[in-house]
């Protein structure tokens, strides 16, 4: 009787252990499943929030709506080798983009970086970026801010006219904002600006910092009290504030005119392209987000580029474009007869340059 009872208890213990193990496995699996589901939900939510945040950063101006049809014609997309338009999800036709660096005074960061304390903003830097069809090459043409131009009449909420026969080029942005800047460039060049991109002081500095800085070689010593930059001739690793100071330096190089500063800006353009190419952003999500946040947080575009999706499509189409395939030039100018501190377009050289882009 005793042995029979003992054997029965051991069997029950084994059955109980098996049941408990099964319950534990079931609990562990349920917990793991719930945890994984939670991580996925949080990941999707975080990705969704990041996209919303970056997308909402971008400000835009409806330039096409403001200017209407009284503009140079759009460039015609180059046909593919088969004779029909390339069926690619990415933009591949030639594009002209007006890129402005704004010295806006708004915000504490911009003021600390040299924007000053006064109201308003000017186009401190103006570049027409021409992307060849197929994105195999690009040409960056700088327009000196001190160039005297015939500023066209731009639409203003007040109804006032902005037209002026002899006006400094960068005054168009001050008077009529992005719309007037685009109309003035198109009037001077007879080249249609397909897109518009504007970035301010803080955005440029943050972008350079997010990329880990840039490497720039200067040909001469720089000592500019206005931009607070002092550099010996040679190669330097610059952080965001230093790179911005270099982009703004004019009195410490050459003859102190805007032309010397443009030369430094061209060096920075190449340095940024090389740094972006050498930085594998896709393998570093944190840095990728930091770069995207820096760019979108200080960006104003036309309505054709005012979403993260459109900016990503444009960026993706440029992945194969290296710094060696980018040509930087300055619109040919000569001293203005009416003012030795100003310049005017040198003809026929300037006209031939714009014709080559058309």
Characterization of this structure:
The protein is an alpha+beta fold. The protein is 44% helix and 21% strand. It has helices at residues 2-57, 63-67, 108-115, 171-189, 201-210, 240-248, 258-278, 285-296, 308-317, 349-357, and strands spanning 59-61, 95-102, 123-131, 138-142, 148-151, 164-168, 195-200, 214-218, 222-224, 229-231, 234-238, 299-302, 326-330, 333-336, 339-345. A seven-stranded mixed beta sheet has the order 1-12-7-2-3-4-13, with helices on both faces. β9 and β10 (229-231) form a beta hairpin. The longest helix is centred in the first third of the chain and has 56 residues, at 2-57.
Low-confidence stretches: 1-6, 37-45, 78-88
The termini sit apart by 107 Å
The rounded Rg comes to 29 Å
Oligomer: single chain
**Topology as a string of helices (H) and strands (E):** HEHEHEEEEHEHEEEEHHHEHEEEH
Helical content, roughly? Answer: 40-55%
- What is the global morphology? globular
Taking the sheet with the most strands, its summary is: 7 strands, mixed
Query: How are the strands ordered across the major sheet?
Result: 1-12-7-2-3-4-13
H/I helix tally: 10
Average pLDDT rating: 79
- Structural category is alpha+beta
Counting DSSP E segments of at least 2 residues, the number of strands comes to 15
Strand content: 15-25%
